[in-house]
Amino acid sequence: MSLAEEVKRVLLENPEILAEALLAHPEVVYQALAKLAPWERLATKEDIEKLRSEVATKKDLETMATKEDLEKLRAEMATKEDLEKLRSEVATKEELEKLRSEMATKSDLEKMATKEDLERLKAVMATKEDLEKVKAMMATKEDLERLREEVDAQLRFLAIRVEALGARWGVVSEEAFREGVRELLKEAGYAVEKWLYYDGEGFIYGYPSEVELDVVVRDGVTMAVEIASSLKRADLHAVRRKAELYEKATGRKVDRVVVITPYISDRNPPYVKAMAERPGVKIITPEEAAQKPA
Fold this sequence. Notes:
- This protein is of the alpha/beta class and about 290 residues long.
- About 60% of the residues lie in helices and about 10% in strands.
- The protein has a five-stranded mixed sheet with strand order 1-2-3-4-5, with helices on both faces.
- Helix 14 (about 235-250) links the parallel strand 3 (about 220-225) and strand 4.
- Helix 1 packs across helix 2 (about 15-25).
- The radius of gyration is 60 Å and the shape is rod-shaped.
- The relative contact order is 0.07.
C-alpha cells in the first residue's frame, strides 16, 4: 500500500486527527475556500441586510393581491372603450360655458314675475273683449276725414264772421279780436283753452318769452289755433314751433295747427298759404270762406 493510501485510511478511521489538524492550522481551510469561491463573490453583512430589505417577507406576501383580486379589479376598472364613451357623453368646457350663458341665474329667477304678479297684471290689462269695445268706439279713418271736413266748414263760416269784427281795418285791438274769435268758437261748440307758457329756453323766438296759444278741442280732435288780426309769412315758423312746444310741455298730441286771420300781410297771399301747408299749418281767411260754401 502506498503512503497516500495509508494516510487516507488512517484519516478515514480516525477523522478526529483531521479535525485537530484543521483547528491547529485553520488557514488551510481559508486557503481552500478562497480557491473554491473567491471572497469578492461572497455576500457581505451589508449585502445580506440589503437583500433582507428588498426581499418580501411572509407578511408582505400575505398582503399581496391574488390572481382573483386582479381579475376582480380588472372587471371594475374602466377600459379604454369606456373612457372614450364617457368622453363623448360628458360636456366639454365650451358646452358648459354655453350652457352657463343660457341658464338663468339665481338673480334672474328672483326677477321673474310671481303668480301674484301675473294675476295683478291680468287684472289691469285689457282683454280681447275690451279691445273690441274700444275699437267699436274709436273713430275710423272715414270718421276722422268727415270730421275734418265739418271742422273746415265751420272754420270757414267763422272766417266770414271774423271779417265782421272789423279787425281788417284796425277797428279793434289785437286782444279784442282774439277774444271775439274765442267767443265765436265757443258758440260753434268748441272747447277753447287759452294756454300761457314761459319759454325760458327761447324755443320759439330764440330768446326767453311768454307764449300764448289757443287750444281748441272738438270731438276728440285737438287743434292748436293761432288767432291773429294779420299774418306775415315770417309768423308761420313761430306758429309751428308753438304747437311743438305745447306738445313737449303738456305731452298732449296736436292733430291740427290752424291760423285764423282776416288778413295776410303779404304781396302774394296764395304763396303764403301754400308755404304754410308744408309744415302742416292751415290758414283760414274770409276770402277762402267766400270761395268755398259751408
